[in-house]
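Mods, move this if it's the wrong board.
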Amino acid sequence: MPSESDSEYRHSILLVEDDIDVSNLLAGYFSLAKYRVIKTRSATDCMDKLKEFDNKIDIVLMNGKIASDRGAMLIVNIKNLNSSIKVFAIADDENNKTRVLDYGADEFATKPISPTTAVEKSTALLMKKPAEAM
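Not the wrong board. Structure tokens:
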């Protein structure tokens, strides 16, 4: 776990991205926005990190490849582990939107998406009151 105190962060995000360059780029933007960033590259590692950081992750941002077929079960597993964790899926194809949202994702966007927009959408999602989130 990071050594910095939790008070230095507004939120914690788990980035599930198999492209290291994209992961590092997003991590930089989220860090600048005062997010604690945890990175992983697979669905299995995602679940391991969620358990390791036991209720300290506010949002999972996942790449579209992971959010497609096997990712649908990943979304269900995340929500079963902790229903308050927000899930934001970013995919190459708009066709995945309905399926991803039906499985419990809280937000969906298509690529390309700027890192700034990803941070803004994530922050807005976390600011919603539970009755507003769908």
